[in-house]
Amino acid sequence: MQFNSLLAVIVVLPAVLAQGTNWSQSCSGGFLTGSGPSLSLQAVCKTNSGANHTTTLGLSSCLGNSNGNLICQRGGAAFQSCGSCSLGVPNLTCNCPTTSGAGHTTTINTNNCIGNQNGNLFC
Ligand SMILES: *[C@@H]1O[C@H](CO)[C@@H](O)[C@H](O)[C@H]1NC(C)=O
Ligand SMILES: *[C@@H]1O[C@H](CO)[C@@H](O)[C@H](O)[C@H]1NC(C)=O
Ligand SMILES: *[C@@H]1O[C@H](CO)[C@@H](O)[C@H](O)[C@H]1NC(C)=O
Hints:
Residues 22-123 form the Cyanovirin-N domain. By secondary structure, the protein is mainly β.
């Protein structure tokens, strides 16, 4: 019984946690690193005590491809299909295939779904 309750908490928790926002307001120097499915965002973010902390977040864990448009979606795996990305903080522009396979240029404001939690980027 106790084990089952504990398991339920562990499984449910990530879906309940508030989504991160506005990372660029407390982080500096955001740039893209990695490629393909491991495309990542790296920045220097303030910890709660005001120190600078270098942090990297895999963007496939935060963004999805919805018919050619980048959307905020935990575990969305956008970079299984999207590529040719550029970052003009906070906007990420990529080429994402539509469901019919056509290339589509799409931009998302990463501040809508990525935040800074004590020096670490999260979504
Ligand atoms: C994020 O920034 C926007 C624009 O400055 C602001 O309207 C919004 O309240 C902020 N959200 C949070 C959670 O701080
Ligand atoms: C943190 O980094 C920013 C940007 O490079 C810099 O202006 C600031 O002085 C640094 N702060 C500390 C506490 O090191
Ligand atoms: C990001 O996109 C928003 C909305 O399209 C735009 O107003 C803003 O100027 C863009 N910022 C940058 C740095 O490109």
